[in-house]
Amino acid sequence: MATLATPVLDTPPPPTYGDVTHDIIQTLRPPGKKYFAGMAIVLVGLLFGAISWGYQLRYGLGVTGYQPPIFWGSYITTFVFWVGIAHSGTLISAILLLFRSGWRTSIYRAAEAMTVFAVMTAGLFPVLHLGRAWYAYWVFPYPNFRGLWSNFRSPLVWDVFAISTYLTVSSTFLLMGLIPDVAAVRDRAAGWRKQLYGLVSFGWKGSDREWRHFGKMYLYLAGFATPLVLSVHSVVSWDFAMSIVPGWHATIFAPYFVAGAIYSGCGMVITILVPLRKAFHLERYIEVKHFDSLAKLCLLTAMIVTYAYATEFFMAWYGGNTFERASFYNRAFGQYWWATWIMLSCNAFLPQLLWFRRIRNSLTALFVISIGINIGMWFERFVIIVTGLSHEYEPWQWSYYVPRWPELGILVGSFCWFSMWFLLFIKFFPAVAIAEVKEGLPAPMQAGAHR
Amino acid sequence: MSAPACVVGVFGQLDAAVAALEALKAQGYANYRVYSPAPRPELAEVLARKESPVRLFTLFGALSGTAFGFFYAIATSLDWPLVTGGKPIVSWPPFIVIGFETTILIGALVTVAGMFLLAGLPKLGGALGYDPRFSDDKIGVVALGGPAQLAAAREIFRAAGAEEVRDA
User: Fold this and answer.
1) In which domain, by residue range, is B78 found?
2) What's this model's pTM, rounded to 2 decimal places?
């Protein structure tokens, strides 16, 4: 008589509430050698950036590659790059929350932390770009004895308001989302960590009263963050579009920048999540389907960005403006052809691979593509800013700029600054949202039934 | 030994906790609370609490932010009336950006403040009947009342399938 076979499940059973708490809190255990090695590399890079900045402070902005009239170079490029990186975090945490997209749950915490650290990194660059960094406070409107106030008709002042608001609201959103999870960590911690997490959780207990008000607050914060994220990169784009520089003065800039920002941000989320998932063994929570969805978002936004590139070139030709046409010809075939073709290769051609499911489901391929996206989007900002300024109206003004070593040192330092905060974050706070993952699971029911 | 202030039912299953709450309500209890590791619509449904008034804070904050942003831009422009770009001193289109950002900023912060106020946070001491398991995988139903009510609550919790019933 044949023995009865044990039923084989097609998919592993979903984790229980207890599994979720255990698996995610185990990421906060004391770090190992690999973590310290990574942190050491990051700190060396950060030191290199700090030395580069110190050198620039000592000898002035002359140490950069600035050539008249190109006074916006790698610093403004990197500023726009990091602001853009921030955007997908808010997209995943806020916009997808409003759309009730369940797949965001496992990945939004890491993306949200990335947003905050990316804005913190971006915020350094206007200060670095100033040269005389100690006067940075002049950009803020403050009462002063001369009665002078900010010029609210300037897009640069709009930028101060937009970026400050974005940093405040995205940090608030991150901290609020952390409260229930930090309370779960508190209840499993001892000693000074219990005290610390007790403070950060504000004494949260998970009562029905707390959840009722918390849920509404979180929804309204998402409602605020959604138009905010669209406005921030629009305002950044107007730093350029409100001027009359050829290649900048275009109404397409706001949606073009927002799509590019989400594209680059999704790329960075993939770059971060692939090693995070492996290092903390989070395969049960951050699944291949999550990467598949992220890759689809990348593909969608890459198509929008490609359409924007095509529109720009088409309008330069069809619009009949000599200066615009010359600027775009120079962009594609002039002295900055290399930067433009890196941009097009990484942002228009490379993401076409994402049409294939096999590529979208291969984490190695996705990781490589995401690095390409990061490179391509940095070059996009470089192309817009530098080629525009290098080829304005007067031929005698035409110039050529390439970043010098202090600028490259600061660029490397910025990646290390960002990575340092992220590495610290994942060891002090849950990188996956405990309560929201539980919310998405089938509730434990009597007799093993699930609802 | 002083009389217990409440009875705590520790539930491992959601439907058992819901059954306990339904039974409490059927017996006319009004003074109870629930702790859970995640918000569950099943619990919200049986509790049938009033909608959170956080939205009023949101509205007040957002309107205050709008008013502040426009006031700030207009008042400071009038304080130093310098014409730039041939535009009016009070230029509405660029001021919309300032008003928009302050709407979001103050609206968001006041919403958070409202949640803290309404939820009674920060909570410095412990909470009545709270157990650390309620942030892990258990649901806690806490019934308050006089000795007779607490005795009835104990029975309800046991009948509903509580894994543990204790006084606190």
Assistant:
1) 54-119
2) 0.90
